[in-house]
Design brief:
CATH topology of one domain: Aminopeptidase
Bound molecules: coenzyme A
Structural class: alpha+beta
Number of strands: 8
CATH class of one domain: Alpha Beta
Mean pLDDT: 92
Shape: globular
Strand order of the largest sheet: 1-2-3-4-5-6-8-7
Strand content: 25-35%
Number of helices: 5
Radius of gyration: 16 Å
Largest sheet: 8 strands, mixed
CATH architecture of one domain: 3-Layer(aba) Sandwich
Length: about 180
């Protein structure tokens, strides 16, 4: 289901789409591309995700929502916007954030986030966990209006890494230029 063509100043139009459960293969394919391309950016591992079956991927649609960006036939970006259980109703967490390396720095993530704030006007606060080692993403979120909330949690994988939580008010998201 294509929802819009949005363009906030990159090198070409970006079409955004909210995936539905029957598109679980599309979700699987882009998640696996992301994990293969940027393993250091995520806690999930390619081998674990690649072994998941259809039912498992469909379960991921129980909680909305998965947004993909396309340029023509190419799927070039992914963001999950999620209301986390126990967190405020007007807060969303961003997860699984990835843009194809060929399309980076052309405003794809900015476009997706601005679109999310428009289609979810009731949301006041946006949150994202970023690995402390992911300097690029930390810079990107800073450019997109996010700042550290002061919360952090160590990973349990023995790597010594931590996740830090960033946050932004809706009116700031993607409008920091
Ligand atoms: C992080 C990521 C999603 C950014 O997506 P993107 O579409 O390239 O981001 P945008 O083009 O919307 O850029 C947003 C801002 O960040 C800046 N930016 C983007 N990449 C940057 C980089 N490598 N270094 C410094 N600034 C950068 C852009 O210049 C822009 O700021 P500006 O408008 O003030 O110039 C992408 O780099 C990526 O997929 N990285 C690997 C996976 C990852 O780390 N995901 C995040 C997990 S939390």
């Amino acid at each position: 289901m294509s929802v819009a063509v949005r363009y906030y100043g990159g090198v070409g139009p970006v079409e955004l789409e909210i995936l539905v459960a029957d598109q679980w293969r599309t979700l699987r394919d882009i998640r696996l591309r992301a994990l293969k391309d940027s393993p250091a950016a995520y806690i999930s591992e390619y081998e674990v995700e690649a072994a998941r079956g259809e039912e498992n991927w469909r379960d991921d649609f129980a909680l909305p929502q998965w947004v993909v960006a396309r340029r023509g036939e190419r799927i070039i970006g992914l963001v999950r916007s999620l209301q986390v259980e126990g967190r405020p109703a007007d807060e969303r967490h961003l997860e699984s954030v990835w843009v194809d390396p060929r399309d980076r720095r052309t405003g794809v993530l900015r476009t997706i986030l601005r679109h999310l704030t428009e289609v979810e006007p009731e949301v006041r606060d946006w949150r994202v966990w970023v690995l402390d080692t992911n300097a690029v993403a930390r810079n990107v979120y800073d450019r997109l209006g996010f700042s550290p909330t002061g919360e952090s949690q160590p990973l349990t994988d023995g790597s010594g890494r931590s996740e830090i939580r960033l946050g932004a008010r809706s009116e700031r998201v993607g409008r920091s230029e």
